[in-house]
Amino acid sequence: MDTKPIVKALGGPTGHFPVEAEIVGYLANSFSVPALLGLFAVGWVLILGTTNLLVKRHNSTLGPGDRNTILWFVLSELNQFALLPSQRADRSASQRDLYICSLKFCWGPLSFCVALMIIVEHPLRHPLQALVSLGQIYGDILYYATSMFDHYHKGVTYCRPEAYYFWGYYFFMNFIWIVIPGYLLYSSIEASGRAFQALARQSKSVERDGHAKKLN
Questions:
Q1: CA–CA separation, 106 vs 103, rounded Å?
Q2: Low-confidence ranges of the chain (pLDDT < 70)
Q3: pLDDT of 14
Q4: Which CA distances in Å does 90 have to 18, 158, 196, 202?
Q5: pTM score > 0.90 for this model?
Q6: What angle do CA 71, 72, 75 make, to 5 degrees?
Q7: Cβ(60)–Cβ(114) under 8 Å?
Q8: Full 3-state SS string of 23-72
């Protein structure tokens, strides 16, 4: 299919697929890909480095695992505002899929809440961490499923044809939001299980002590 008339009608190539998608208010990138990647990397180093320093200042007793989890949730919260929209194979950005967009922006503020709960060692940290992690996994699987459905059933592709876009941007970058949340979900479930076991042991101990006192 000749896409030149479509591209011309949109006022120039957008870099998004499908090419006939209309992106309201689209402005072409004025930076090259290496420049964008460089800015992206510098920004995250500054943000995560500052976050790590603040965490150490406010709670120096946290171990490396908890600090890394805080950095992950801060990354998740700020990822919604990343400055690489034209380079990501992001269907929700190009098509304004309100449902998927709402899922993404819902987990952003909650991710920040989890990070704060870890810092202050709030007792509800693990339930909320499990909720957010499960939501991230659900949103990612839904993203894959709807994109693949449109690709195979409707013949509409939302990813650029180059292999590195598909495997690098579309598959790998999104798969990270399944692997890490999966691990955090498991760790929260395990921590909750240990807490209930400890509570059960404590309750049995109190019952035994109370029964022993009655006998005496």
A1: 5
A2: 1-26, 80-105, 209-216
A3: 60
A4: 11, 7, 41, 50
A5: no
A6: 85
A7: no
A8: CCCCCCCCCCHHHHHHHHHHHHHHHHHHHHHHHHHHCCCCCHHHHHHHHH
